[in-house]
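Shall we go through a protein fold together, starting from nothing but its sequence? Please make up or recall a protein chain and show it to me in full. Go ahead whenever you are ready, and we will take it from there.
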Amino acid sequence: QVQLVESGGGLVQAGGSLRLSCAASGPFSRYRMGWFLQAPGKEREFVASISYSGESTYYADSVKGRFTISRDNAKKTVYLQMNSLKPEDTAVYYCRAVQGAWRYWGQGTQVTVSS
């Protein structure tokens, strides 16, 4: 069983920055990792993902140029650097690990951006 623990959420003013972290258990370098968000009353949606080695990254159009996903396989941690935050970025952010056909989710961390 893979365990994922997110941290780094909080309250920030519009234009500010936050860095989310997600610490994983197990053979981390074998996981493709991603971040998703879920705003109140809405479905969970894709934010960013990163390949096993970190060489390939993908972003939702809404965050391109503002968010950066990265990983440290030695620390078994994936990060989401969020800059130029907007009130519409307010959501619970979830970390996801993919290993083969399996999907694992963290418990989520709240990000609130005030205007």
In short: The chain is about 0% helix and 55% strand.
